[in-house]
Fold these 2 entries.
Entry 1:
Amino acid sequence: MTRGLPLALAALAAVLMAQTPADEQRDLNQALAEAGASPVEYLRAVEKHLQKYPDSPRRAELERAATRAAIEAHDGPRTILYGERVLARQAGDLVILAAVAQALLDSGAADAAPGALKYALRMEELYRQMPPGAPQSERGVAHALVLEARATGSAGRAQDALTLARRAFETFPNAESAREIARWCETLGKFEDAARALADAFTIPDAHSTDADRARDRGRMGELFERAKGSQSGLGDLVLGAYDRNVALLHARELRLRQSDPNAQLTDPLQFTLTATDGRKFAMAELKGRVVVLDFWATWCGPCRAQHPLYMQTAERFHGDAGVVFLSTDADDDHSLVKPFLDEAKWSGPVYFEDGLTRALEVFAFPTTIVLDKRGQVFSRLNGYVPERYVETLTGRVRAAVADRGAVQ
């Protein structure tokens, strides 16, 4: 997730806003100012700070920040080092659970499989606690099962791994689970089945698959089919069969998701229906012709808490302007956490759950502020925030959206 502000920056902003001793705060401010926007440099800054202040009262937050930075930097060893410390304190962060499990499996260490399996099982448990039919739940369970399959197979139980991989594909058919089926079919000498699984991976539309991924699937599929059959004669029929099979399968999945989630597959923000924390439904279509300012936040996000008063300060500048609407949008997976948080933090005004908007608007880090123009198109995006400039920057962008003639109906 390299688009937008790195998650490392968001996590470290929480630390910057925390009440730390003056000397430590000054040193941390200086270190981060020198680090720039690179997650690698942020990670180094945090590590140096922890070396200098091993008894820091913010150690838990700093180690969480280091984990997020390591994930952004694709640093497997440090993802494991700091991630396992974070998970030992609180094993409920789905992003860190997935990243640590994957990093352990990628490490190739002889003792990595049990730890990866433990974290993957915890992921599956958390995703299964989400509302039935929620698209993120099915996708998350499938990813957890893929990680379980990899860990199980790495421990020498290939047949069990294949069973888990097939369960992943049945839960949420995608290229990742199809490739995992192929991996363990090949290990078990089932080369034609492996080729068939790669035909699935090749033909299923998957936003997470690149052209290079598909090219590798196509090449390996041909090799395995030839190994099973002696030639590639009939390979085209295998691919066409996979295409027909998966078109029907994905259509059925889309219908199921639409029944449980009216926002499934939508991409236009103004077609979304949001749910308020009190259960009321709100159709975004009602906002067409107005400038909409969306603040995406989560209860676990320290910078979001610090940004909120500045967001409200900006909203107050447009109080009484019927052409501008500010929507506070929560992105927590567990909705039960939100109302207690709002009561404790004494946040006022309506709050809505994101209900798929983060997917449609490609929000990868929190806080993120998005300004939609009068047609509902993205006019401006603020990933993270700079405390000294946030209010003026956002005010200027909202006014520019209001004045934009191209956005008028």
Note: The radius of gyration is 24 Å.
Entry 2:
Amino acid sequence: MNSFNPIEQRLLNEFQHDFPLVSQPYLAIGEQLGVGENEVIDRLGELSRQGAVSRVGPVFSPGCIGASTLAALAVPEERLEALAHWLNAMPEINHNYQREHRYNLWFVAAAPDEAWLDVIVQKIAAESRCPMLVLPLVERYHIDLGFDLRDGHRCHGRGVSDSLMRVRLDASQRAIVGALQGGLGLARRPFDQIAGLNEEAVIRQVAQWREQGVIKRFGVVVRHHEVGYRENAMVVWDVPDERVSELGRLASNQEGVTLCYRRPRQLPDWPYNLFCMVHGTDRVKVRFQIAQLARHAGLEGYGSQVLFSCRRFKQCGARYVGDGHGRH
């Protein structure tokens, strides 16, 4: 699947979730791998430069802090690239993909609060002048727990709460989120003096958020394309509202599903309310996984669409704490 050496393979594979929340985490990782602390830091730095690693740090659970939404634009082909790059320049946009559909530009916007998010969404609608879908999270069944580079299966990681608990951040918590949302530093003591706070207090807060499920996972965040998962599809179904939770939970447990959640319909253009992301090494495998998923989860009889990704314009961590310049 990839050409990483054994140490890199273990770094990428074993520490997507089980990242040590200690004063010197890279020393602790090195002890597990049989290498020195500096080698761990250097290798993660090189993997980041190569693009295989997006960052080391938290993946915050959508709906717990700040506000976010999935959205899509139906963009004329001749405007697609320019509009995608315009979106990329906005710090509130963290994922931005072209997909095979009339609604061809799909992105995720995140902001500190709903009011800020609404300003961003309205700005995009007004300046793009394109038909737009806004599809916020309604119910989640499975959020990305990483990729297993050894056998191509998803990683399951540690068990944490999957409740949609809302957290109102105080000033120090907001400072921690702001410092970590772009990634943890590659330094001997990366938690030291984060936002001017005590190292032990920062580690304790991060550990608590991880146990509560506010942080879905903390560790090495890989870019799926660079580590061998070169194809992905967003699969959507039109499921009766009274059955969507039941079928969503069934779908979330199927092989190949990395994300699964309920989002609202937006009629008449968008009748779909159940969303799954399926990643694989090639399209044949992804299509096979989708067929298996539909059969085993009882979804074969419902209207559906498969939207393969064509191009990735942006992929980074969500910014839930702004710098004061996000409202334009």
Note: The radius of gyration is 20 Å.
